[in-house]
Amino acid sequence: MGLLGKIFTWWNGATVGTGIFTSRNGEKVGQDAAGNVYYRHRKDPARRWVIYAGSNDSSRTPPGWNAWLRGTIDDVPGDETLPPRRAFEKDPTPNLTGTLEAYRPGGSMAGKGKRAAATGDYEAWTPE
A Pfam family for this UniProt protein (predicted)? Predict the structure, then answer.
């Protein structure tokens, strides 16, 4: 991404302004498996933020880091601070709304298939 892209796009990584603010005031505290980098303010550690590796979508933030960003936990997340993963837990998936992979139920205008015919329990309203 070129300089113009960095200036005008906030939805894909960090803008130039965020990068400057981060370099002046941020202290890197960690990085997750997806490449997102987490910071806290040098003078006010309660101020925390993330610079995403790719699109800015909070659903891409792992639960431990999400708790840290919100101030729910004070310790920087690591393998020892998180409870063991349960068998039914899956990796987080990004929000697919607005993409070709988004869920489209049968019968919707964007979905495939046809809407089921009325079953006879529906009576159309007509104004008097």
Answer: NDUFA12
